[in-house]
Design a protein that fits this description.
With about 300 residues, this protein is an alpha+beta fold. Helix content is about 35%, strand content about 20%. α4 (about 40-50) packs parallel to α9.
């Protein structure tokens, strides 16, 4: 009896009305009651996200002088200095294609399951007012911060695999990921690439052909081009300090670095109803919080 009920509940989460007004009713109503319309750069980003599923900005344009970006660079620099040998070992193994399901071409500086530390620069940046406001406005509810990390992608000559191929993320109906480049990213550094309009709010809903890599659906460039032409792909090159917002339930790929490494900060927001795994290691001590939106984002 329980299995059919669970199947029905899982199916119900795939429909926006039940996802929003059954599983996420309280965060939706609280957001509608308390939040104000975005303005300026944040409003421009939200409009692009709703239309295309992706928007780009910069630390200077969105966060201005009140930004922890310099602190973030210092923290990452300290990791690279103190763990240089580990980073070089990871670089030596980056081309190993034998481990199915493992992104050997990328090192997560904070580990696969980071400790959620609300006082760290990684958490404070994620819930910085403009970023959190955009996440909440895009989902139309108070969102949960589900992940943050520093990704170091190594330049390799291996064939594309894993997240270097086109795919959708499956954590939720809407998933907002934020990427902040910590070094300049040109075409040779594996820029994040997005097929505009393939998010749930978009117009490009035809599914491309795919193949299975393990149990995950992956799509190559030629297969994606058959349904979304390359002129509708956003190839997000940019200088250090570039910020990318993307609904990764839409088709995307990245990290196929060929000539230089890519180092960037990332964080992810989902609804409370997300059935994804828990990415954080959480303390039993409740964090000190500044407001309702931040409180909801950081609590489990």
């Amino acid at each position: 009896m329980l299995k059919p009920i669970r199947r029905l509940a899982r199916a119900a989460r795939k429909y926006e009305l039940t996802w929003r007004y059954a599983y996420n009713l309280a965060p939706t109503l609280n957001y509608q009651r308390h939040e104000k319309a975005l303005t300026g750069e944040a409003a421009r980003i939200l409009a692009a996200l709703n239309r295309d599923g992706i928007a780009t900005s910069s630390v200077d344009a969105l966060l201005g002088s009140n930004s922890p970006y310099s602190e973030l660079l210092a923290a990452v620099g300290e990791i690279e200095r103190s763990r240089g040998k580990e980073i070089e070992t990871a670089r030596a193994n980056a081309s190993d294609e034998s481990a199915i399901g493992k992104k050997t071409f990328m090192l997560e500086y904070l580990g696969k399951n980071p400790v959620l530390d609300p006082g760290s620069v990684y958490a404070r940046l994620a819930v910085k007012t403009p970023l959190l406001q955009i996440a909440n406005a895009y989902l139309g509810m108070y969102t949960r911060l589900r992940y943050y990390n520093i990704w170091h992608t190594f330049a390799t000559r291996s064939k594309p695999r894993e997240s270097q191929l086109w795919h959708r993320d499956r954590e939720d109906l809407y998933i907002l990921k934020v990427f902040i480049y910590l070094r300049d990213v040109d075409l040779g550094a594996g820029p994040f690439t997005y097929a505009r309009g393939t998010h749930r709010k978009g117009v490009a809903q035809q599914e491309p052909e795919y193949f299975l890599e393990g149990r995950v659906k992956r799509t190559e460039d030629s297969q994606m081009a058959a349904v979304v032409p390359p002129e509708r792909w956003t190839v997000a090159t940019g200088a250090a300090g570039t910020i990318i917002f993307a609904d990764t339930n839409g088709y995307h790929r990245g990290g196929l670095a060929r000539t230089s490494d890519r180092v960037m900060y990332t964080c992810m927001f989902t609804s409370r109803a997300s059935e994804s795994e828990e990415f954080f290691v959480r303390s039993s001590q409740p964090p000190a919080l500044n407001g309702d939106a931040e409180s909801f984002a950081l609590n489990h």
